[in-house]
Amino acid sequence: MKKILLLCLAINYLECSPNHGSVVETPNGPVRGVQNEKGDFTMYLGVPYGVVDEDNPFGDAKPSPKFTSVFEAVSDSTLCPQYSGRPVGDINCLKLNVYAPNNIQPKDKLPVMFYIPGGGFIGNIGNREMLGPELLMKHDIILVTINYRAGIYGFLCLDIPGYNNQGLKDQVLALKWIKDNIESFGGDPNRVTVFGQSAGAMSIDILFLVKEPLFQRAIIQSGVALTPWVIAKMNNSVPINVAKELGFKGDDVKAALDYLKAINAVDVINVTHSLNIYDTENHPLTKPCVEMESEGAILIDYPVNLKPKVKDLDIMIGHTLREASFRYPVSDESYYDNYVFDIELRQDFNET
């Protein structure tokens, strides 16, 4: 009897705890978040928006299945596979955070801000520790931040269909989740502003080419689709070389992918990092690329040849404060004396 009483008290405490958010009923199932320390907004952390097939981690993700019970959205510790001082991440990483003010009325439909983090297409972090919501939560908006696949799992560029631009396709999947579910959190699915920096900004500019309109406004910070180094060339060698380093024998790209799918993602990322998979200008080989036309294709030609679908969209383009501060302030005079602007000038300007 005493144990039952203690259990009931524990359950009652959890349900009534001031940091425990209310349950939100979404089309994808019930979700419970957690209030921030001050109790002025609720955080729904680590909500799945997609599922990566463990038998095909380099292929298309599928929408997250509906929750059969309350999903406890209280942790956003999962990262997509990447090298961040050390190899980290898990392939089941397609999660997002939703932040909503506590004073929302049932009739309210607040504008939504959807952030796509940068990371050079080799990594990204959408969690609260890196992207704290406190500043934007001072305004009447719903904020969403996401993880998406990058590097070898998100941006291969192969001559076989179904393995290219997965990171971009993850972003589209997340935007579709927003369209279907954000109203349950008090957001307006018809007032979505997408914003991002660096690779996130370049991704947004590429998403202007998607057939289906997924947002109404965009803020592009320090990066566009016409940035000369953004689009990769077809290259089957990346997965083959990584697989060989891990014991694979052969030169067939599909066989190499099949071999890699059985290896822990952290080990794959570690080898990818050690091989230093960059081009001669120190840009990653894993990044967006032109893919074969298909139902799920994102980029079927070079951006310069395509007409972005921007009619009736509000767009702001600029750059972040102290852009590239990781490089320019710490470089010596020789870096600037020997800097070559050729890559910046490789556009069809007819003159240089």
What does this 3D model show about the protein?
With 352 residues, the chain is of the alpha/beta class. It is built from eight helices and 14 strands. It has helices spanning 2-16, 151-154, 166-181, 199-207, 237-245, 253-260, 265-274, 333-337; strands at 20-26, 29-35, 41-48, 50-51, 62-63, 71-72, 82-83, 87-88, 95-101, 110-116, 142-146, 187-197, 217-221, 314-318. Strands 1, 2, 3, 6, 9, 10, 11, 12, 13 and 14 form a ten-stranded mixed sheet that branches. It has a two-stranded antiparallel ribbon with strand order 4-5. β2 (29-35) and β3 form a beta hairpin. Its EC number is 3.1.1.-. GO terms for molecular function: carboxylic ester hydrolase activity. Belongs to the type-B carboxylesterase/lipase family. Keywords: Disulfide bond, Glycoprotein, Hydrolase, Serine esterase, Signal. InterPro entries: AB_hydrolase_fold (IPR029058), CarbesteraseB (IPR002018), Carboxylesterase_B_AS (IPR019826).
Give a brief rundown of this model.
The chain has helices at 2-16, 151-154, 166-181, 199-207, 237-245, 253-260, 265-274, 333-337; strands at 20-26, 29-35, 41-48, 50-51, 62-63, 71-72, 82-83, 87-88, 95-101, 110-116, 142-146, 187-197, 217-221, 314-318.
